[in-house]
Amino acid sequence: MWGGGTWFRSQRVFTMGPMRATHPLVAAAGLAIGASLVAAPSASAQARTARTCAPVAVPGAEKQIAACLDDLTTAGTVTSGHTIPADWAGLHPPGARNPSGVRGTQIDGYFPDTSTFNTAHGWNHDSQFVIRLPERWNGGLVVAGSPGVRGQYANDFTISDWVLAKGYAFAATDKGNVGATFYEDGKKPGDALAEWNDRVTQLAKAAKRTVARYYGRTPRRTYAAGVSNGGYLVRWQLEHNPELYNGGVDWEGTLWRENGPNLFTFLPKALDGYTTGNTAEIEAAGYPAASSFLWDYHYKVYWDLTQRIYRQEVDPAYTGAETAYDYASRPRSVHKAVRKISLNGRIGRPLITLHGTLDSLLPISQDSDVYDRLIKAQGRDRLHRYYRIEGGNHVDGLYGTYPDKLRPILPCFRAAFTALEGWTTHGKTPPPDATLPRPASGDLANECSLGGTQ
């Protein structure tokens, strides 16, 4: 293990540039803001075996370290020290089954940056990334940004494990800043958030070139995928850099609009309603009454903190109570900061959106319902499929607490990704937009059907 332990015999470390051969992985807490598991591709699949443990330089990286691993999935990386479980804690449902046993190369590193919030590896440096290159490659690449303000390993369980087993290379970024003080990054309000989009673009370009160097040819297809803020990044990428991707899966991405909706048009109302005991105000903010059993938890863990740190990012001059924050009346400069990161719905590649009807952080009526209408208004609905998941919350971690009320979205993400593959490689149109009812029985943590034949 890194940080004083021993490596398994089959693991060899390659360093590039002036760095130590080993670095400790420092655990860091993060903030999150009918398909069953698919086995690794068979030999008949068009998989390509990589050169054994071959080092490869990541274009533009200031620092990197590579390791050949018996298992690139969390089943192996938790033991070997090549992930940080705190990054992905609470995002997946209890009982979720993941594949394992994917041999390959992992590259950890960072791009040039001046901020130092990310303490992973003891580097104290932001714009950290992880790239995983399976021995048996299917010709594809999946790129992801982290949810909330978590580190670069936040998608390891929900996305990386599964796509690696399918043969995809995987690349993820910390988005250029992490943690509850991320707003201290940047020179002007909104800069720290805008950097997130730049860092995903940077990683996508670098990962494509890294894949080409490693396997000897460029990826045939590249997909963007993410949850929460990671879903927002998928939306933004397909609006602004569609040429880099073949499509994407947006798992309840955050909606930013200069004139609303955005976090500041519903969170203050929810906070005020909760603190005054006015449930009608919470419902008016967009949170359905059916989600009321989740409000206490989300007030304590999400609502206040989320409102405060994101408001600090775009409106640091505000000194009043968060419950009284009135975005519409704030200075033009505040709206200009939100404009930097606003979405417009003008996607240029196929996108599948998933959103839970009980999302108690980003209420569906103020987020993906609106984004779906934006896409239609732009005349891009032919490129979009939207599945509303009945009983789905913002993340799946509370499924174990409320198994009779909630439905995990993770298996629906996997079903959506499979549908996206068929859509972009074989022209197989996914099932129509739908609200997917919560099954009365079955293995909800591992099974989901989008409807139709899949």
In short:
Helices cover 29% and strands 15% of the residues.
Describe this structure in words.
This protein has 454 residues and is α/β, with parallel strands linked by helices. Among the domains are: 13-219, no CATH class; 263-339, no CATH class. The chain contains eleven helices and 13 strands. The longest helix has 25 residues, at 191-215. Mean pLDDT is 90; it is low at 1-48.
The Cα radius of gyration reads 21 Å
Helix count? Answer: 11
* Class derived from helix and strand content: alpha/beta
Number of strands: 13
Sheet having the most strands: 11 strands, mixed
Major sheet strand order: 1-3-4-5-8-7-9-10-11-12-13
Report the average pLDDT across residues: 90
N-to-C SSE series?
EEEHHEEEEHEHEHEHHHHEHEHE
Overall shape: it is globular
Work out the helicity level: 25-40%
Which residues form runs of ≥5 with pLDDT under 50?
1-48
List the helices and strands and how they pair.
Elements: E1 13-16, E2 48-49, E3 63-69, H1 74-80, H2 85-88, E4 104-110, E5 128-134, E6 136-137, E7 140-145, H3 156-165, E8 169-173, H4 191-215, E9 221-227, H5 229-240, E10 247-251, H6 263-276, H7 279-284, H8 295-314, H9 332-339, E11 351-356, H10 368-377, E12 384-389, H11 410-425, E13 434-436
Parallel strand pairs: 7-8, 7-9, 9-10, 10-11, 11-12, 12-13
Antiparallel strand pairs: 1-3, 2-6, 3-4, 4-5, 5-8
Helix pairs in contact: 6-8
